[in-house]
Amino acid sequence: MKTIFLLVLFSLAIKNADAQTSYLLKADRVFDGVIMHDQWVVLVSGEQIEAIGPVGKIKVGVSTKIIELKGQTLLPGLIEGHSHVLLHPYNETSWDDQVLKESRVERTVRATSHLQKTLMAGFTTIRDLGTEGAGYDDVGLKQSIEKGLISGPRMLVAGPAIVATGSYGPKSNVTAIKLINGAEEADDQNIVKVVRDQIGHGVDMVKIYADYGWGINDSIQPTFLEEEIRKAVLTAKSSGRGVVAHASSVEGMRRAILAGVETIEHGDNGTLEIFKLMKEKNVAFCPTLAAGDAVLQYKGWKKGTEPEPQRIIEKRASFKLALKAEVTICMGGDVGVFSHGDNAKEMEMMVDYGMKPIDVLRSATSVNADVFHIAKQVGRIKTNLIADLIAVNGNPAENMSAIRQVTMVIKSGKIVKE
Length: 418
Description:
This protein has helices at residues 2-19, 95-101, 104-120, 137-146, 191-200, 226-237, 250-259, 272-281, 289-298, 310-324, 344-352, 357-371; strands at residues 22-31, 36-38, 40-45, 48-54, 65-76, 78-83, 123-128, 154-157, 162-164, 184-186, 206-209, 211-212, 221-222, 243-247, 263-266, 284-286, 389-393, 406-411, 414-417. By secondary structure, the chain is α/β, with parallel strands linked by helices. Helix 5 (191-200) runs parallel beside helix 6 (226-237), helix 6 runs parallel beside helix 7 and helix 7 runs parallel beside helix 8.
């Protein structure tokens, strides 16, 4: 009995020692989520950031491990603002075929690989905005990561997006056929019930489609009425959750903004007036530049050798209007339309479209953390926050492509890539 007792004490001592393991990260520069600092260091103890400051100012114990990161930049773990881990690129398999022909098991297996690739690319948190016909499998993936069953970033999940009846796909011209829907339908009569049901299934936020290509000749037209969106917003808000809106048309964006959504996704046809309204109502903008770029390439555009299509020209113009209106801009690429692990493409395109590199870094860290209500946990290198950190070769504030050169990934104080 005494031997068992001693073994238990020894085991607890080892676990406690592991929890208190500390190391000092010494990089050429530290981006804290807001400002770039030269010759600063970061002290990690257990799962948390214990201290940050200039070299020589942080006291460490004799057992603290020193990790030298010569020529590198240390940043908060990046936050992907618009992901679909249960999708893969449409040039591999069309969206319709993924929803209709791939089993839920296959899609989940693919998703575990997508999550691993995303984490290794330096994205330690993702906001996943719709399972596209896979129910609440994103909730299960999130829980599996939290239990340590699979490797991946921490997840904020939306479950199935909510769409107006008849608006979403897949669709068939044979009216007698009932197809799997890529989202959950709702209307004025039941939208409150649908939102509450999603909350009960464990979503972190609610996603609605404020418009879709269901107009004459497949034109983008509004779906929900402003009053319907407002019902969804009030219902979600009563549980402490927000609503995000897919919206590309001016009227769809306007209805969603006035109804109180927290973010607008895509916003391709946004005008200066609409973006000013977003600024006034404190609605953030997730432009998803990389997804539209990828889709046009799938359709035959040879990027780099052919002139930019009109859609790209218009997207560049609308993004500049958003910058002019000083809208809060999130970093989110709609990854899943393009390859998981290639999330940095959105950051590179944000710079190419006119955003300052330092502002893009803020969008992918502190801004996303603030907008997604997780700033008390992650998004900054700050004392007592969770130690989600990455190191990259070079300086992404000078050359955004350096953000791809990930040499180290730390999640909750544990080094998962070195």
